[in-house]
Amino acid sequence: MITVNLYYKGTKGNARRFAEEMEKSGTAAKIRAEKGNVRYEYFYPINDPETVLLIDAWESQEAIEVHHASPMMETIIKLREKYDLHMKVERYVSEDLPETDEGFIRK
Question: Could you say which DSSP state residue 18 is in?
């Protein structure tokens, strides 16, 4: 699994308005329904009201590439421009949890 953390940074509440429009317009739901999408969720950092974190996880690089080629990317790009957002991106590839870490996780 590949997880991408996208930090959307704006001013005057624009990052939150972007996330709200993604949800209300149904665009986020359509992305969640795409083949290979594992997670697509927005979060608000407590200490930074002008940033929104999107955790976006996919089964494979191929699934990400299909998503990037989809019409929804044009919608997302237009909304980023509408709200004048800038981004920082972090990318992670998942691996199995080592047995030595299991004892630290409360289930």
Answer: H
